[in-house]
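Homework help board

Subject: predicted structure for assignment chain

Our instructor gave us this sequence and asked us to write out the predicted structure in token form, then describe one feature. I got the tokens but I'm not sure how to describe them. Can anyone check?
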Amino acid sequence: MNSVMGAKGANFLVVFSVAYLVCSCAAPQYDSAADKAITDLQHKIHLQMDNWISGVAPRGYGFKPQSRPNAGPPVPPNIKFYDDVDTDLTALEIRMEASPDPSTVQLPDRFSGLKANIAALKQYHIKECPGPRDEDCKSMSFVKGLQGMQKLMDIDFANLMRYELTLKSGTGAGTALGASTSGNQSQTGKPNQP
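My token output:
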């Protein structure tokens, strides 16, 4: 009787192990929330940069440094925008990298590249718009720099969206991510054209 139970137990263990391996090797699933978060964040950044380029900034993300009563000197311009973007990007990164699938191993590099480009944008913005006046931010040099950075970030977001859309279609997610655009800054702090 023990040998019969032992054989059945061993068969169950083999079947369970094979099923576990098949499930753990399955392709990651499309995540509509990540898809929406990528789209929303790209839209937020692109819209803000378009507003800066056209010289019209929405309320709360204006050009002027925001002061904090009784908290020392004013913070850099547009700190709320940059804080919001950082929070949204971190949440998206955590969500997308949570899958233990091999195709997600490239995601940290893509997010690092996007974060580096956003940090470069912030530093460029602070450098090019040091004063509290709107006129400080309307030079053609500033506009051209923003346009170059906007193109780089659009490439970064396109890579993330391509990854999600290949998951949705069920085709090779592992090859969907393109090259990161980090490091595309010149030594002067201005972006190189892609």
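Reply (TA_rk): Your tokens look well-formed. For the description, you could write something like this. Residues 29-175 form one domain. That's the kind of observation they're looking for.
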